[in-house]
Write a structure and sequence with these properties.
By secondary structure, the protein is an alpha+beta fold. It has four domains: about 55-65 and about 335-405, conserved putative lor/sdh protein from methanococcus maripaludis s2 fold (Beta Barrel); about 70-85 and about 245-330, Elongation Factor Tu (Ef-tu), domain 3, CATH 2.40.30.170; about 90-120 and about 210-240, OB fold (Dihydrolipoamide Acetyltransferase, E2P) (Beta Barrel), CATH 2.40.50; about 120-210. About 35% of the residues lie in helices and about 35% in strands. The chain has five helices and 24 strands. A six-stranded antiparallel β-barrel has the order 3-12-15-14-13-16. Strand 21 (about 365-370) and strand 22 form a beta hairpin. Helix 3 packs antiparallel against helix 4 (about 170-210).
Length: about 400
């Protein structure tokens, strides 16, 4: 019985050489399945990150804008800068060292007002010396006049004696010759006086040039040089003045659209410094110069009303209008509008993708009512912000992008 049981158990035993082969096959299948699943997860999780890091998404660009009631009357919009028509860089006519500066940056001055004074110690000394020479020349001239008067009196006496026969005619002739010589000497002395006086006047004129005065009414728009600094005709200006009452906007109009601009046409001016304020403007003149590199023509636009708070070199946006705006329209505030094509939904919220360098930043926005082809923006990025137009559903925060040229 024992032998039969052993035989039965032996028949159930698997051959040893088959066990490794069967177990190895199943193990290989399990490892392959795990690798396949892990690879899919890695691709789904990391592949998109690698793709976003290495490849730039092509996007089209638009921007958030301030839209005013003048939008319906706009013929053309261009950008430019505020510049003064009257300005002056004030320097020194002569070489010297600043002794005093009497104005500061931002101060308003009147034409003829003293702005600075150069060291005039050498000039004062030269003037005193020249005036002494004038006095000496005047003394010599007075002596020459006295000698001439004495000689004329003696010549008159000798002439009387000759007529009476009491003296020789030669004596009278000698006195007449002496009178003539003294008259020439007196004229020479008088000429020396005039020359010395002219020298004094020249030195005084040169000394007055050491006092720097304002050539125009204006405001000091640069920090003046400090006392002790050397100045001169070839040196840096002491300061710069600008007449704020002559401020205009110089804007570059594309050459192809210049036909839409006419002198005297009404305009609306919006400054980047005051985006909620609007200024009435008027096309002043078309400057006869074409920038070949940019294919633009500069146009000057003046402020109709006093440009309070406006400073030179401020950036400005000029809208050339078909008709002037009335007072009621000017009182209506502009609206911040985002194009509808720039708004997307992410996670149930409305967002825009702000362009920052070569990446985008997803920014939530709060929209108001529809306005033209966009929406009024209650909260979000400011005016002028560049955003992605028609963002792709796969576009995400921080994605690298490149702008399309179409």
């Amino acid at each position: 019985m024992t032998d039969s049981l052993s035989s039965d158990l032996a028949s159930l035993r698997l051959p040893r050489d088959e066990e490794p082969r069967r177990g190895g096959a199943w193990r290989k299948l399990a490892v392959a399945a795990l690798l396949g699943t892990g690879g899919g997860v890695v691709y789904l999780v990391g592949g998109r990150h690698v793709e976003a890091s290495l490849f730039r998404a092509e996007v089209r660009v638009t921007e958030i804008a301030l839209v005013s009631p003048a939008q319906g009357f706009i013929e053309l919009t261009s950008t430019g800068y505020v510049v003064p028509l009257r300005s002056a860089k004030v320097g020194a006519r002569v070489q010297g060292r600043l002794a005093r500066v009497l104005v500061r940056e931002g101060e308003q001055v009147r034409a003829g007002q003293v702005l600075a004074v150069l060291d005039d110690s050498n000039e004062r000394s030269a003037i005193r010396t020249a005036r002494a020479r004038v006095e000496a020349a005047r003394a010599r001239a007075a002596t020459a006049r006295a000698n001439l008067a004495e000689a004329e009196m003696r010549a008159s006496r000798e002439q009387t004696l000759v007529q009476r026969g009491a003296a020789a005619a030669a004596n009278a002739e000698d006195q007449a010759a002496r009178v003539k010589a003294l008259a020439e000497a007196q004229q020479s002395a008088e000429a020396e006086v005039r020359a010395a006086e002219a020298e004094v006047r020249a030195l005084e004129v040169a000394a007055r040039q050491l006092t720097i005065v304002a050539p125009i009414d204006g405001t000091v728009v640069t920090r003046p040089l400090q006392p002790g600094e050397l100045v001169g005709p070839a040196g840096a200006p002491i300061l710069e003045l600008a007449d704020f009452s002559s401020l205009v906007v110089e804007t570059d109009v594309p050459e192809a659209r210049l036909s839409r601009v006419r002198p005297g046409a009404p305009c609306e001016i919006v400054l980047d410094a005051y985006p909620s304020r609007r200024f009435r403007g008027e096309a002043m003149e078309i400057i006869p110069h074409v920038n070949r590199a940019k294919a633009t023509v500069p146009v000057r636009v003046k402020f109709v009303d006093a440009p309070t708070g406006v400073l030179p070199d401020m950036s400005a946006r000029v809208s050339f209008l078909q008709q002037a705006l009335d007072a009621q329209a000017m009182q209506q505030p502009p609206r911040l509008v985002v194009p509808a094509a720039a708004v997307a939904e992410r996670g149930g919220a409305r967002v825009v993708f702000v362009i920052e360098g070569d990446r985008v930043r997803m920014t939530p926005v709060e929209l108001g009512g529809a306005f033209g082809s966009g929406f009024e923006l209650k909260s979000g990025p400011p005016a002028g912000t560049r955003v992605v137009r028609d963002p792709d559903p796969s576009l995400s925060d921080g994605r690298k992008i490149k702008e399309r040229n179409d």
